[in-house]
Known about the structure:
The structure is a homodimer.
Chain A: H1 3-37, H2 41-72, H3 76-109, H4 120-141, H5 144-152, H6 154-170, H7 179-211
Amino acid sequence: MNTRxxxxxxxxxxxxxxxxxxxxxxxxxxxxxxxxxxQDIELAKKVINGDNLIDNLEYEIHEKALMxxxxxxxxxxxxxxxxxxxxxxxxxxxxxxxxxxxxxxTVHIGNEKHVKELIDIPKMMEMALEMVTDAIxxxxxxxxxxxxxxxxxxxxxxxxxxxxxxxxxxxxxxNPDFTNQIIQLAFVCRYIERxxxxxxxIAENVVYLxxxxxxxxxx
Amino acid sequence: MNTRxxxxxxxxxxxxxxxxxxxxxxxxxxxxxxxxxxQDIELAKKVINGDNLIDNLEYEIHEKALMxxxxxxxxxxxxxxxxxxxxxxxxxxxxxxxxxxxxxxTVHIGNEKHVKELIDIPKMMEMALEMVTDAIxxxxxxxxxxxxxxxxxxxxxxxxxxxxxxxxxxxxxxNPDFTNQIIQLAFVCRYIERxxxxxxxIAENVVYLxxxxxxxxxx
Lengths: 219, 219
């Protein structure tokens, strides 16, 4: 194989590893949400203990990408491609951390009956997860259009976050014994809002890859 | 100049840029805290608007580090040095984001009188800022000992976070009208706890640089 096809083959392997990592992070987030909804402490602990795998994948991706830069001295878009691979894997690692944070909130709440049925939190999560899927797909297929579409949803998640926290707080005066649970749920809303932010960051990296210019799609 | 001294000179310039970036992030955090304590909305807005500078520095550092890898093909510890430079600048960028989050909480609270004098929050912040300083110094001087010392403080900050949020919640039943402010203060405690986490991450990178092995100093 010549150098170019070596490079392309290495890039392909790197991308496969990144897809694997993104899949692990998505599963962790979904399981964290399920653990919260079903008050499934065992599942929450599984999410917490599984985060090491995602952290290790990030290191593996970083090391492979840097070795590739050192060995092949890519320029222009090829160098940007590897830059973006580094940045996106760091964003995905943060998604894994957020899954852990949500799982920890599940553990904090424990078996205490929910102050109300959780309806809007999973709705907000659904929207944030759509953004994750769009951002990863846009990254994988280098699709600027989809990246911009993904980032557009961020405002909606922000709005839901504000409304949801406001609503949650109204439950406290009538349910002072549930204050701890309610604050944990407010934290969860904040974590979901962060999932949307990290998805937007991934989308921005897709635009950077194509144009070489940084855009703040989140402004 | 030979290649080695070229490389060393470039590394030196990169580190100077990183120190500048870390200084900006520290100032942003301190100003965010001041804006919260003094209910200084103007200062909070300055922090929010100033974050672009920190984001741009991160990109500049990433681009310089990757160009250096592509041009000089460093190996072993030199390659790790640049890997760590990339990772540390991303952690510092998150510190800038946290300053923005705290400043946004200041804006949310606005001019509403504080439900109580803020004493423990600045104490917790003081400890987190000590960790930032130690982590950055350890990074700059490649001082493993200091990196480990820094990471040891993380548990104390975590404990303060738990205690503080618990205490904050006790104010809600007697002060239901202050619920929104109290939840903002709980978020601020969470942000400070994240500052300690990012400092620990920087410290872990210093240990990785020296040993080539990843350590979870935060476990």
